[in-house]
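Reply to dn_fold:

You asked what the input looked like. This is it:
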Amino acid sequence: MALKNTSFQLLSEIATNGNHGENSSYFDGWKAYESDPYHPTENPQGVIQMGLAENPLSLDLIQEWILKNPKGSICTPEGVKWFKYIANFQDYHGLPEFRNGLANYMSKVRGGRVRFDPDRIVMGGGTTGANELIMFCLANGGDAFLVPSPYYPAFARDLCWRTKARLIPVECYSINNFMVTREALEEAYNKAIDANINVKGLIITNPSNPLGTTMDKETLKSIVGFINEKNIHLVCDEIYAGTVFRGPRFVSVSEVMQELEHCNKDLIHIVYSLSKDLGIPGLRVGIVYSYNDEVVNQGRKMSSFGLVSTQTQFFVAALLSDDEFVERFLAESARRLAARYNHFTKELEKVNITCLPSNAGLFFWMNLRGLLKEKTFEGEMMLWHVIINEVKLNVSPGSAFNCSEPGWYRVCFANMDDETVEVALKRIRAFVGKETGKPVELKRWKSNLRLSFSSRRFDENVMSPHMLSPHSPMPHSPLVRAT
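and this is what came back:
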């Protein structure tokens, strides 16, 4: 213990302040999976990972494209002539072909209804890097951003850990499918002002993580009107824009801006990546697209800490310049996501489990309120203990997403193969008693995992989800992949 304390004294406050956000049930589920991962033959009783928002369902299409287009890589005989140029390229703006390809792709994902200027694209190391970059540009330590709940648990890490900004939840409820209302925004804003907190902006995720829903045009217009009236920034996380698999169609804030007569564009910024749309999070392609010239200029300077490698830029530029492939990929990806979503949710309906109707994303918002022994967040965690330890499914409890109501759980459906889906469904059916007639008893649960199943939803200084703890000693921490 003394040695550990001495080691901590040698490190910085940021490195040791515990605000990275690992002590959360969201990440505890990852640890449970990492300690006992499911494998169909080597560990068939292990934990199935359903807390990971990854999208490998259509990666075979990209693999086929790579085989047919060897010029897209500098590591092939056909593309090696570009090696020297790519290996020495260091411009913070990024390869022109990369920015042009990305701007064109963003337009395609939004149905061609808006156009994007390649010169407004600022690179970030994945969405995490892009989120932190925009916060460094917009907020000082102690400044706050409103964020509608439920929201992505790792926002505390991405947006607050090193920037020392704060998050203030905007409470949303199931009575209207967790839609963001003007009244809720005003209430959260006024409470912050009364508490002498400087509100610098509002962050929205559209499509929503964890709800899997898209915002309608009127809601977006109301939000833009709100931030203009308050003269605060609007950061729109649109990283799931290309995962819409059924109607209603996706409406981007960029589309709404075109229709509003009075709109201060300097206040609006978009965070985007290819991690979800294309299913390539390991390539770390994230960007900030800002309508504010100063944010673009200053953000580009900061982007030197998280540039996309030029080898990746080269590959992405080639891939996205193939219009025929992009259109075919988006259509087929939507078809596969819809098929998986429909199969999963219909099977759940057979055992009387309902979900919030969704049309996008790689997950759904599952309603287990009827299974709670207590209609509280403590009851939610009791049920989650059983699901993670007895049923052996890593789903994420709503309290980790700062949900205002107990009993909701996020379930990721796109990160596993068909066979694993069926195993997961079989476990769920057994759990609710439709096959065995013997649902798991809460009193039978005995923890054999060193997990911190806290139900506390807020930390003491940022009014955000409880995600405060030192780093995990695990050699392959799930936090570096958390989505």
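The first strand starts at residue 48 and ends at 49.
Hope that clears it up.
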